[in-house]
């Protein structure tokens, strides 16, 4: 299961100055306004289904052709470009809100058969099927006779 933990780089507290301390994952949820203003990334669920992992990434409003999946040096990267504009007009009031940019997340593929990865996108959810590599069974313990 540790193979599918999202890659976030180094988050150690040692050798950090005060300006980078607040960027640490421990503190970021307290100061991150991303969910108030529209998430700066996307959320994932990862399920262990025995022979494979299933990763579901929520990407509402993103077009399939704007999603980019790549595997490089044992890392799976999911990236997407988005451009969303919402307008609402009522009487003398005009409301307009825009979001655009690119977000991405990377995951280690340790223990994953890279060639067998499959993806589908439906109703704003990207689903990846990540087959586990076959673990060779180790022979049972046996005793060895000592010759005279």
Order of helices and strands: EHHHEEEEEEE
Overall pLDDT confidence = 77
Helix content range: under 10%
Report the count of strand segments: 8
Describe this structure in words.
The chain is mainly beta and about 150 residues long. The chain contains three helices and eight strands. The strands form two sheets. A four-stranded antiparallel beta sheet has the order 1-6-5-4, with no helix packed on it. A four-stranded antiparallel beta sheet has the order 2-3-8-7, with no helix packed on it. A hairpin with a 2-residue loop joins strand 7 and strand 8. The longest helix is centred in the first third of the chain and has 4 residues, at about 20. It is rod-shaped and about 100 Å long. The N and C termini lie far apart (about 50 Å). Mean pLDDT is about 75; it is low at about 10-15 and about 25-40.
Topology summary:
Elements: E1 6-7, H1 18-21, H2 28-31, H3 34-37, E2 44-48, E3 52-58, E4 67-72, E5 75-90, E6 93-108, E7 118-122, E8 125-131
Antiparallel strand pairs: 1-6, 2-3, 3-8, 4-5, 5-6, 7-8
Essential attributes:
mainly beta, rod-shaped, 8 strands, 148 residues, single chain
Short description:
The protein is mainly beta. Helix content is 8%, strand content 43%. It is built from 3 helices and 8 strands.
């Amino acid at each position: 299961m540790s193979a599918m933990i999202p890659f976030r780089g180094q988050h150690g507290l040692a050798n950090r100055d005060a300006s980078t301390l607040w960027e640490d994952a421990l503190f970021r949820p307290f100061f991150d306004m991303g969910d108030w203003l529209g998430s700066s990334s996307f959320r994932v669920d990862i399920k262990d289904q025995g022979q494979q992992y299933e990763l579901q990434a929520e990407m509402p409003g993103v077009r399939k052709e704007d999603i980019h999946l790549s595997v490089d040096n044992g890392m799976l990267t999911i990236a997407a470009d988005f451009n969303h504009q919402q307008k609402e007009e009522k009487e003398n009031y005009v409301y307009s809100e825009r979001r655009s940019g690119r977000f991405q997340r990377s995951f280690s593929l340790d223990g994953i058969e890279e060639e067998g990865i499959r993806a589908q996108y439906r109703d704003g959810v990207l689903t990846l099927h990540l087959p586990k590599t076959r673990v060779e069974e180790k022979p049972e313990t046996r005793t060895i006779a000592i010759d005279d």
